[in-house]
Amino acid sequence: xxxxxxARLRAAxxxxxxxxxxxxxxxxxxxxxxxxxxxxxxxxxxSAANDMVAATGPLSFDAEQVYQSLADADxxxxxxxxAVTEPPAARAEFRADIERAVTYLRAVTAADPTRAxxxxxxxxxxxxxxxxxxxxxxxADSRDGxxxxxxxxxxxSYLMRSRLLPAADGLYRQENARLAxxxxxxxxxxAIVIFTAVVGAVVLFRVQRWLTSRTQxxxxxxxxxxxxxxxxxxxxxxxxxxxxxxxxxxAREHGAAAQSLVRAEITVLRAHADxxxxxxxxxxxxxxxxxxxxxxxxxxxxxxxxxxxxRAAADGRPGDGRxxxxxxxxxxxYAVHRAVRDLDNGGDYPDAVYLAIGSGPAASPAVIQQRExxxxxxxxxxxxxxxAGAFQAVEADLAGxxxxxxxxxxxxxxxxxxxxxxxxxxxxIASLLMxxxxxxxxxxxxxxxx
Amino acid sequence: MRGAALGLLIFxxxxxxxxxxxxxxxxxxxxxxxxxxxxxxxxxxxGSSVVNASPACVASLRPSGPxxxxxxxxxxxxxxxxxQRGYLVVxxxxxxxxxxxxxxxxxxxxxxxxxxxxxVAEAIFGNENAIKPVAITSAQRRSAIxxxxxxxxxxxxxxxxxxxxxxxxxxxxLDAHQRVLVPSGSKARGxxxxxxxxxxxxxxxxxxxxxxxxxxxxxxxAVPNWSDCLAMLQQGQVAAIxxxxxxxxxLATQDPQTKIVGPRFTFEPQGLGMSKDAKDLVRFVNAxxxxxxxxxxxxxxxxxxxxxxxxSSIPDPPAPSYCGASxxx
Lengths: 450, 329
Prior knowledge:
Chain A has helices at 6-13, 17-54, 56-82, 88-111, 115-143, 148-187, 191-214, 221-281, 287-299, 306-313, 320-345, 349-357, 365-379, 387-419, 423-447. Chain A is mainly α. Chain A has a domain at 56-184: de novo design (two linked rop proteins), CATH 1.20.1440.210. In chain A, helix 3 packs antiparallel against helix 4, helix 8 (221-281) runs antiparallel to helix 14 (387-419) and helix 11 packs antiparallel against helix 12 (349-357). In chain A, 51% of the residues are buried. Chain B is an alpha/beta fold. Chain B folds into 2 domains: 39-48 and 176-261, 3-Layer(aba) Sandwich (D-Maltodextrin-Binding Protein, domain 2); 55-174 and 270-311, D-Maltodextrin-Binding Protein, domain 2 (3-Layer(aba) Sandwich). Chain B contains 10 helices and 16 strands. In chain B, the strands form 4 sheets. Chain B has a 6-stranded mixed β-sheet with strand order 1-12-11-13-10-14, sandwiched between helices. In chain B, strands 6-2-7-16-8 form a 5-stranded mixed β-sheet. The chains are: A mainly alpha, B alpha/beta.
């Protein structure tokens, strides 16, 4: 390009109204681009954090309640069947369990229209009435003194374990995955915001320098104002994101602690039902007893077990004390359970039932007393008098820990949500002000040509 | 104009077609619940026995003289060891009223078979309550005997040749015959009418095998406990239950909406199963049976537990058959 001498180049770069107008458009575009990226990201994160507090968080809790209620119903029905005349409290608890399961199932149904959720919901929708029908038949037969009642109870429990609980578990996993994606959405690296902020800064800086070098004025007040607003809004945005992220990470850890307590609680419920089923089946150490032993191994306490995992997850959190207590309560429970099995395997069925549930026919007080003193030696004083009592102690500790960690989850998630409040609107307004600053600054330069 | 009307008609017809309600999402959810441990067809025959009551197999060991006084068992005998232990361990079924069942109201195991086991306890201890019932399913009988978990089995058990591989039996204490239990409204008049239909029996029994070999080809369905068969029948999951009339009568007591139909198609002498290591106990039990047959106790127990549910009058006890010199070892 022979015609492009330094003099002509300077002339070409000299501001003209057309060039200034172009610069104005470029800076306004950059401001609005940054503003929309920041607003979009803020809206996205706010809604994700909002979901954790108000939608996916509660929904995963609801799904977990469906599972927990059904597992509790299974254990309650089996224990009540052992007591010849069903205790009124057990009947009330069973009803409450089923009502809770159905209520939470409705909540999940209403809130999650995804196809994956619907197949699990359909299984539970038809399965729960079938299950309660079988339990009702078992109880009616038992009241009439018909041995066939036990077959109905075992069939009901099999339905629960082979179809309903797996469906509830699938639902829980699905809702948990949705919660995890809310979390990821609310705490991910804000790449687009950073990128557009850098682009905006470069554009503002280059235009400003071009103006400075081509005109006599060192600073353009409109540009200065726009830059200042840009820096402040970026600081606010990143600060908000960071604060929210800290709270949401805390929320996730509380949630994980509650989850591992829930896993332990579900295993405890399974083992409790197993103990009753073994006695109902009346065939000594059978498949249900094998399942109890497996549940005991999974539960611990001990390295790599659910209770120690729950304890590690709850370390320093509100559920910590309860998780630790659950460990020692579980050890006491296993001792009582073994005493129950010894009685049953020795042919002392009524005594075994009595030691298991604290009631039942034809228990001999002498044998029970003898067992209890043996237990006191084994477990120490203050041991629970029955296996059911020991189970309740473990369950109460775990439930207490779950409630505490759940509350902490909600509080931390709400804090995270709060840290994001006003960000989206703020970013929108800030970018409009920036665009206005740029337009004002350049329009004054353009006005000088008139 | 006619074209437009035709078009409208077609539109209306297709519109009706699309207005059908949406199909349910998961049809698998509608699967009927069933008890656990159900097997169908050839899988149902695992561990089953062939009905074969040939005299050589039914013949038991002759009692060695009169019974000793309770508490005075011959030194070193199986009975002496049981006496030392303090109770007789009896394998029982807990789901078959009349023969061997657990009363849900009392938790006590009772029935005709259990009453005979109590007679054995009476002979050893002078106390018919010195028994420890251990509930076992039909399929668990073999392992319970081979593993010495029980002294004798009071589950309803047919003496059959192939079972002699793992157990010795007492003399025949109750004659039974396989028949069919169906809902009152069923049109089936016997096993011959149940071709292609599901017929239930407990796993590991002679009954499940006998169902499978019927010329009418019913589909055998095996379950752990006899009461599981009744639960399945009540839920319409099987068309019938087929086993000995003694067991069927017990199941029928739990449901007045059932009936026993058809001809007897097997002959199945019932025996108390014991370990092959306890020949002295087999002889002892046979002596107990001898006593209750002759002193009228057998008829009294039959009248109390079974009564006229199987036949119109109380029968005489089956005559025992003992083997000759060949099995005197």
